[in-house]
Amino acid sequence: MIDKNSIIYIAGHNGMAGSAIWRTLTAKGYHNLVGASSKELDLRKQKAVRDFIRKTKPDVIIDAAAKVGGIQANNDFPFDFLMENMQIQNNLINEAHRLAVDKFIFLGSSCIYPKLAPQPLKEEYLLTAPLEPTNESYALAKISGVKLCEAIRRQYQKDFVSLMPTNLYGFNDNFDLKSSHVLPAMIRKFHEAKENNNAVVTLWGTGKPMREFLFVDDMAEAVVFALENELPDHLYNVGTGKDLTIKELASTVRKIVGHTGDILWDDTKPDGTPRKLMDVSKMHNMGWKHQTELEAGIYKTYSWFLENIENFKQKVY
Ligand SMILES: NC(=O)c1ccc[n+]([C@@H]2O[C@H](COP(=O)([O-])OP(=O)(O)OC[C@H]3O[C@@H](n4cnc5c(N)ncnc54)[C@H](OP(=O)(O)O)[C@@H]3O)[C@@H](O)[C@H]2O)c1
To answer: How many whole angstroms from 68 Cα to the centroid of ligand 1?
Structure first.
């Protein structure tokens, strides 16, 4: 049984997803949380992972650690993305199994689903058609993690579960324009343009593709839900179930930031997949639903960005 005294190891607790999970668990009174940075514990090293889990004796492991990157990095370094992610999750899953950890929650992403799968994406579409080639390595690593958790449930009746969040945004997001996702990139671009006498903001593509976004603290609530309930299946999508065009997203971010200049859509740049929306009915049927609507989440994220702007300056400006 999991309770507030359970020892919970959050792998990747400094990242955007991991830090939200840590914050949410702490707020709910879980007080035996364990974490280690990649400098303290390289999760690619099997013996180090074994020693760490032996020493800390977690009741639960939440795997929010991964080598993540944008399209360019995924495309340029397929071996690294496949190998390192498999090493990280294999070590965690195997040691959790060997050392009899009660519960394991594995985080993946919507890229596990086929490139041309029908929309919205249902869990059952996994492995029904080819993947998006640019992030195939990352997706394959994540699929193998999902399959390991499924296999361990079937063979050993263990409570290992995989959650697949849609695009996340929120506190501790990456605002480095070279590697950031679309929403934090827009926040930074509109903010800098506002500071620069409302200069024109150039955005990639036509603005027509549709995307779904989930506030990262809502994803953390889904993890807590999976922690506190024994879910009957091995794989669940986590999102809002609602999407909007990139143009609509831009106009919302622009309004919140207070930019009044023009937007230039650079349609020489690729649009990517026309639509990517998760079917979240399985998780809704279990009793979890997101709480933060997009506009409220962007307000919170922009406030956090303003409070922390000095830190980004050192890191990425
Ligand atoms: N961001 C999204 O939009 C999104 C959407 C869907 C799913 N997800 C999933 O959420 C998970 C976390 O993503 P994120 O956005 O939070 O990424 P992130 O901010 O880059 O965090 C990743 C974390 O993994 C840790 N890590 C990486 N390599 C490691 C290693 N070799 N040893 C130990 N720790 C290592 C890093 O630790 P250090 O900081 O200590 O180096 C970092 O804290 C991933 O599985 C991702 O697929 C994210």
So the answer is: 6
CA-CA distances (angstroms) from residue 22 to 33, 109, 178, 247? 7, 19, 27, 33
By DSSP bridging, strand 167-169 and strand 201-204 are unpaired
In a 10 Å sphere around its CB, with 0-12 CB exposed, 13-18 middle and 19+ buried, how is residue 165 labelled? buried
List for the chain the helix, strand, coil content (%; round to 5): 45, 15, 40
Per-residue pLDDT tens over the stretch 98-120:
999 999 999 999 999 999 999 99
pLDDT in tens, 215-232: 999 999 999 999 999 999
**Omega before residue 232 within 30° of 0, cis:** no
According to CATH, the superfamily of the domain at 7-169+213-241+275-292 is NAD(P)-binding Rossmann-like Domain (3.40.50.720)
Name the residue of 13, 22, 38, 290 whose CB sits within 8 Å of the most ligand 1 atoms, as the mutation to test its pocket.
38
CA distance 72 to 267: 18
